[in-house]
Design brief:
GO molecular function: transposase activity
Strand content: 15-25%
InterPro entries: PGBD, PGBD5
Helix content: 25-40%
Order of helices and strands: HHEHEHEEEEEHHHH
Largest sheet: 5 strands, mixed
Pfam families: DDE_Tnp_1_7 (PF13843)
Structural class: alpha+beta
Mean pLDDT: 83
Protein name: PGBD5 protein
Low-confidence stretches: 1-22
């Protein structure tokens, strides 16, 4: 297989520069739309972080039969169109597992308390469906099903980070496009190893992640497959 990676980020502080756009919700929404452009009409559920979660984006996705469940932040999210009463923390003390709900059509805004207030926006789960979050020390904490589903899918990212973060290329160039390039290369190699572990070849050779990376680099550079002397 042959792969090509194209990275185009405009440096600078102008109105169209990266520095001016990287903290704006519109940019994150544009990335989400690009990633989901082939998911239309398939009834997929996507899970989003605070920088992507917004009412406008979720409503736009719903028209394409793409459904969403996202963590909402009053600091990082675009909260346009959401009721202010749900964005303020309750003055009265709350018990773990308590939550408030506001609905508009299929869209639900959930404010759930667990040692702090957590807000979720979703059109993929009914807010009346119950779920639980299981903690090793405190046991089961009741929550809406949307919260349980989000926590379950978020764990995939945590597992990936825990297992492969130490294999990311640590080179830190000054140029942003170079940082993105090496980050993309790191992800590509890690994902290649995951695919290798799913293949029949893994049952024959059983390379570790470090051995796989070493072998891959040697093959890409055209070096002989010999063990390092130091």
């Amino acid at each position: 297989f042959s792969f090509k990676i194209y990275v185009h980020l405009k440096e600078g502080s102008g109105s169209d520069g990266l520095d001016a756009l990287k903290n704006k919700p519109q940019l994150h929404s544009m990335v989400a739309k690009s990633l989901c452009q082939n998911a239309s009409g398939k009834n997929y559920i996507i899970f989003t972080g605070p920088s992507i979660t917004s009412l406008n984006l979720f409503e736009e996705f719903e028209k394409q039969e793409i459904y969403c469940c996202g963590l909402l932040s009053t600091r990082k999210s675009d909260c346009t169109g959401l009721p202010p009463s749900m964005l303020n923390n309750s003055a009265t003390p709350q018990s773990r597992g308590q939550y408030r709900i506001r609905m508009k059509g299929n869209m639900s805004l959930i404010c759930w308390y667990n040692k702090g207030h957590f807000r979720f926006l979703t059109n993929a789960y009914s807010p009346v469906q119950q779920g639980v979050i299981i903690k090793r020390k405190s046991g089961e904490i009741p929550c809406p099903l949307a919260v349980e589903a989000f926590a379950a899918h978020l764990s995939y990212i945590c597992k990936y980070d825990d297992k492969y973060s130490k294999y990311f290329i640590s080179h830190k160039p000054n140029k942003t496009w170079q940082q993105v390039f090496w980050f993309a290369i790191s992800i590509a190699i890690n994902n290649a190893y995951i695919l290798y572990k799913m293949s029949e070849a893994y049952h024959v050779t059983r390379y570790s992640r470090a051995q796989f990376g070493e072998r891959l680099v040697k093959e890409l550079l055209g070096l002989e497959d010999t063990s390092p002397t130091h």
